[in-house]
């Protein structure tokens, strides 16, 4: 039976750390030796990375938004394409081993195998979960591990005959409506295959890493391969591969038999470029204790098979840490890039908005000025026109008036003078007539008086 050694662990750790491209990029840089060509190349690779990121973001727009489970720090999924390879057994013991390795850490167990829930049996739990004040289900707890499973919500032997949508809503309830309190790790026991449930879990919650379980025979490895590829596709880091039931040791003669093969999972891990997390033997104890609801990590903590599990758990958490570190670095790089992009976008928008508003303002100002100028000049024009009209009217009327007055005066003067003249004339005429007639009369009178005298004189003469 192959046990883990600390040297293997440190080697795996080194590999995990060297995988982080963010760290490598920093280490590769030699200050002062960067040529123009290198700069150009690195610029091109940054551009293509940015383009890839953009493509990823565009594809992610169609997917549901990942939302963390309230109170849970890290989620580890235990999966495999194949059924019956020991996923649930590994998930249960992994949750217990994570807590056994570090007493300060808390772990929970979520069984999303809706059609065949095994956690109630493996953890020796029964009953319906109670509801918390905010109407969320309170997990059932055994061995210090809070657990939630569809098995708590349906009768033991009743078949679950659900169509896809009902399964999705059940998974959604298990992910969102459980009151986990505060957990360092939530180990999720996946159903076999790479179907709707797996996709739904990976797309709805952020997952720190996936552990793939497989037995060493080809038919199981084929499905494990599919499982690992699925996680890669949905951007979930694969922490590594566990080879379960790798070797059987006869309790009587201690002879070791590789019932399902010896090295299949290790080779697959090499092919996929993922870590090989270790061998768990096919052991009677594991099967018996699991069936009794007493997982080996708590029922036989000092056994050899448990030490493997404990080592594996330690390894998981260490790998998990480096995966988390990597994803944190990646996340902060992404965040930085997103912030930079949004800052650029924002400033561009701001600039164009400012420019636009400046243009708008100046256009408005200009048109206002133009309008007011036009209005003013129109008003001025009208005012001038009006006053001109008024003036000319006044002038005309004044002229008319004065003309009328003048002509009236003239007329009256003429009339008066005519009258006067005619009066004078008349009186003159009258006077002269009178005078004439007087003269005449006096002449006549005189002559009448004088004539006889004259006649007498003439007679005398
Ligand atoms: N290392 C082991 N040694 C002995 N028995 C094991 C070992 N691992 C698992 N078993 C047993 O194998 C059976 C199947 O295991 P388990 O239910 O964990 O598989 P699974 O992959 O979760 O199955 P499913 O795909 O149906 O969910 C169980 O009875 C379990 O006790
Ligand atoms: Mg199972």
TrEMBL record:
<comment type="similarity">
    <text>Belongs to the Mrp/NBP35 ATP-binding proteins family.</text>
</comment>
<dbReference type="Pfam" id="PF10609">
    <property type="entry name" value="ParA"/>
</dbReference>
<dbReference type="InterPro" id="IPR033756">
    <property type="entry name" value="YlxH/NBP35"/>
</dbReference>
<protein>
    <recommendedName>
        <fullName>Iron-sulfur cluster transfer protein NUBPL</fullName>
    </recommendedName>
</protein>
<dbReference type="InterPro" id="IPR044304">
    <property type="entry name" value="NUBPL-like"/>
</dbReference>
<keyword id="KW-0411">Iron-sulfur</keyword>
<keyword id="KW-0479">Metal-binding</keyword>
<dbReference type="GO" id="GO:0140663">
    <property type="term" value="F:ATP-dependent FeS chaperone activity"/>
</dbReference>
<keyword id="KW-0809">Transit peptide</keyword>
<feature type="transmembrane region" description="Helical">
    <location>
        <begin position="438"/>
        <end position="458"/>
    </location>
</feature>
<dbReference type="InterPro" id="IPR000808">
    <property type="entry name" value="Mrp-like_CS"/>
</dbReference>
<keyword id="KW-0496">Mitochondrion</keyword>
<dbReference type="GO" id="GO:0005759">
    <property type="term" value="C:mitochondrial matrix"/>
</dbReference>
<keyword id="KW-1133">Transmembrane helix</keyword>
<comment type="function">
    <text>Iron-sulfur cluster transfer protein involved in the assembly of the mitochondrial membrane respiratory chain NADH dehydrogenase (Complex I). May deliver one or more Fe-S clusters to complex I subunits.</text>
</comment>
<keyword id="KW-0004">4Fe-4S</keyword>
<dbReference type="GO" id="GO:0046872">
    <property type="term" value="F:metal ion binding"/>
</dbReference>
<keyword id="KW-0472">Membrane</keyword>
<keyword id="KW-0408">Iron</keyword>
<keyword id="KW-0547">Nucleotide-binding</keyword>
<dbReference type="GO" id="GO:0032981">
    <property type="term" value="P:mitochondrial respiratory chain complex I assembly"/>
</dbReference>
<dbReference type="InterPro" id="IPR027417">
    <property type="entry name" value="P-loop_NTPase"/>
</dbReference>
<dbReference type="GO" id="GO:0005524">
    <property type="term" value="F:ATP binding"/>
</dbReference>
<keyword id="KW-0812">Transmembrane</keyword>
<dbReference type="GO" id="GO:0051539">
    <property type="term" value="F:4 iron, 4 sulfur cluster binding"/>
</dbReference>
<dbReference type="InterPro" id="IPR019591">
    <property type="entry name" value="Mrp/NBP35_ATP-bd"/>
</dbReference>
<keyword id="KW-0067">ATP-binding</keyword>
<feature type="transmembrane region" description="Helical">
    <location>
        <begin position="408"/>
        <end position="432"/>
    </location>
</feature>
<dbReference type="GO" id="GO:0016226">
    <property type="term" value="P:iron-sulfur cluster assembly"/>
</dbReference>
<feature type="transmembrane region" description="Helical">
    <location>
        <begin position="334"/>
        <end position="359"/>
    </location>
</feature>
